[in-house]
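Take a minute with the sequence and fold tokens given here and flag any structure token that looks odd. Thanks in advance.
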Amino acid sequence: MAAEGPEFEQALHTILSAMAPGTELRDGLERILRGRTGALIVFGYDKNVDELISGGFQLDVPFSSTRLRELAKMDGAIVIDSDATKILRANVHLVPDPAIPTEETGTRHRTAERVARQTQLPVISVSQSMQMIVVYVADRRYVLDDSSIVLSRANQALATLERYKQRYLEVSGALTSMEIEDLVTLRDVAVVAQRIEMVLRIAAEIEGYVAELGVDGRLLSLQLDELVAGMAVDRELVARDYLPVPVGRKKAKVENTLKALAALTNEELIDFALVAKAMGHAGSDLDLPISARGHRLLSKVPRLPSNVADRIVTHFGSLLSVMTAGIDELQAVEGVGENRARSVREGLSRLAETAILERYV
């Protein structure tokens, strides 16, 4: 597993959650720190770990912080299960491949990094002399800080997220008014896609802090949920609205667009041309006019099921056609009766009035 991408982030969040304040494992680690004995703990057990073990003894007993503390008094490593519910082995000698590169100098940290790289399982090293806890996941080293330090970083990131969310709301509102007037350019779409991606990336960073904070991050988690609510849906709706027109047998897919946007580095995300390329518009002029299909605006119409909205878009082909359609024309779509047709017309009219007022007043 490479130390990047969603799979790695998920693995890191899992181990940080298991070590968060309020957990039995964190209590045990802090007991070890206070006792100044140090520890080497393998988080999981499989045949790869078994091949590296020499000596020690089997336990297979329920996990507890006090047991972990007492076992850490011995020089050998401790092996626990991946759920941190059982202590499986204790006082074992780990013999990883010495050819695995490591930048660590201390014996315990060097062994921990090599075991993590060789087994692809998280390994925790508690330093006796430096009084620090280090987690090795794949080829990444993560130092576990005090909750107050993590909370400070998280609050800074949350303030940044709030600013980016506000910027997204501004450009999203501008895009809505331009969609209604059919004045959208590729640049306008790229700006909105970029803002959404930035918000989601900052949110992912804060999710890591929430996982590390455990019970201390409950309020932070509530604030995060409120700020990013609906953002992932908006991201997909923008992609669906502006997928390139199929050329020949090649058909653009929303999933490919979302993956391409996620694959952009933070530096690449600043370049609107690269964002447009990720959305399937490679080589296009950013000032090129482009029309929305209508998925995003129809999602804002109250009590309109998403499958009915999809049929409306498929039937009319563009937002402009939907906006100018009469009640009778809307009723021609499957699942749209007279009442729903009036609801769509009134909903879009209200959205148009609000967007234009916000833009020009």
